[in-house]
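input
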Amino acid sequence: MAARRGPTLRSQWLGKQLRELREEAGLTLRDLAAYVQRDASSVSRMEAGMHPARVPDVLAYVTYCGESDEDTRAALVKLAQDAWQTGLWDRYTEGALKSLMDLAWLEARAVEMRDFQALVLPGLLQTSAYAEAVMRESDHGTPQTDIDRWVEVRLERQKILAGSKPPIVKTVLDESVLHREVGSRQILRDQVKRLIELAECDNITILVLPWSSGAHASPEGCFEVLLMEEPYSPVGYAETPGGAFFLERNDVDRLISRHERLSVAAHNQADSLVLMRRTCEELGGV
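output
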């Protein structure tokens, strides 16, 4: 299954930042269009990422909108230089670029999300206690106030699952995730109960890849694919100890193919629910 082709993720990030700069400065599309000597529709397409902004456009934006922070200006210029490129994008952890990118923004625009998780549950499916336990271990030594704020943000992100137009979610979980006692046995039990509730929603499919399946389509690790509204292309996303990675085009095609093969190898929805209920009973709950 080949992924759709559309504006690159870089051009979308860049357009988002330019629009926010303009709005914070109290300027209209017409104001900006007059300054950069373009028509308003061209500026609108640039902010939507449909037509990547070039370096002179970005410099005009940051000057007219009064952006004086040198790191932010440099990061926006870098995005403009990269906007025409596609493929693996591993700059998510580099300085000011990191502040310009937001997975929650992508999730809010996605019409469908497919992921494979073999270590912990997807953030959108986590209970607050499970999320806190994950964050405390992965960010050891972080003040509790910061963890509380991160948990709050994660719970806020989850609201898209019950919105007026919720995305379709197709998750494949390695069976080991259901048995790893994150936080405590009770936290895991409550988490599995939450999974059972979510799996009964029309827009959410949770499949369990059994231990008996052996070698599978993604031995290198976990990933997520976000299918966007037209005309935007799908985006791949993966987290590693070295930072987060975004992927586009052919790289996403490969992830989509992997997810399809993992789904075939996994238990179907009904059998996955049976397994989750059995696991919950073993943990002391129903």
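quick obs: The CA atoms of residues 192 and 276 lie 7 Å apart.
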